[in-house]
Design goal:
This protein is an alpha+beta fold and 205 residues long. It contains 5 helices and 10 strands, in the order ααββαββααββββββ. Helices cover 25% and strands 14% of the residues. The protein starts with a helix and ends with a strand.
Length: 205
């Protein structure tokens, strides 16, 4: 073998390109396809409307509850929430929207093709309530809600979200599809563990 041939073999060996390993793209949470907009697009729009950035760190260990407000919301005998005195207009609007669907049935994926539906799941319920106050323009799943808005609890509104579930605290009152008891309503005064949930809130609330 000539010196030139040997050099060509060595050069060819050095130029072998190993295939690049593709990294997994975890979606996180339950996602829903929507004719209106994708979850990632909806999250970006919602964050932009709230002045949030994707670099905002999320709280991984949720506090026991939201900061105290002047007066907390209550659940009436009909299972609907009563707006507390002094609540900001967006808070009153969230409560009004929540009351519209408070007694509707649970349906997995409900409320994700459009805000208007006959039954709602956890993230569909929270999305509907936030949309009622003009805080959200497209539905988000629980993973998307865990990245929406600002990190930490709010003074009036706080979202708790993880990969499988989400709920909302409004003026100290829980809006949640799990543990529905009083008049079959999503509004509940009883606390629940927030362990393992990310905590977010709308800017200014």
């Amino acid at each position: 073998m000539s010196r030139r041939t040997a050099f060509a073999f060595v050069l060819a060996a050095l130029l072998v390109v190993l295939p690049t390993r593709a990294e997994a793209d975890p979606t996180g949470g339950t996602s829903y396809s929507s004719s209106r907009t994708s979850t990632s697009t909806a999250a970006a729009k919602a964050q932009a409307s709230q002045g949030a950035t994707t670099s905002t760190p999320a709280t991984t260990t949720a506090p026991a509850g939201t900061p105290a407000v002047t007066a907390g919301a209550t659940v009436g005998p009909d299972g609907l929430a009563v707006v507390p005195a002094g609540a900001p207009a967006p808070v009153a609007a969230v409560i009004a929207a929540g009351n519209q669907i408070a007694k509707l049935a649970y349906k997995y994926g409900g409320g994700h093709q459009d805000f208007a539906d006959t039954a709602y799941d956890c993230s569909g319920s929270v999305s509907f309530a936030l949309h009622g106050a003009g805080l959200l323009d497209a539905t988000l799943d629980s993973t998307g809600l865990g990245r929406w808005g600002q990190a930490g609890p709010g003074a009036w509104l706080t979202i708790y979200a993880n990969k499988t579930h989400t709920y909302l605290i409004v003026a100290g009152l829980r809006f949640d599809t799990s543990g529905q008891r009083a008049a079959g309503s999503r509004w509940q005064a009883a606390p629940r563990s927030a362990r393992g949930f990310k905590v977010r809130h709308p800017l200014g609330l």
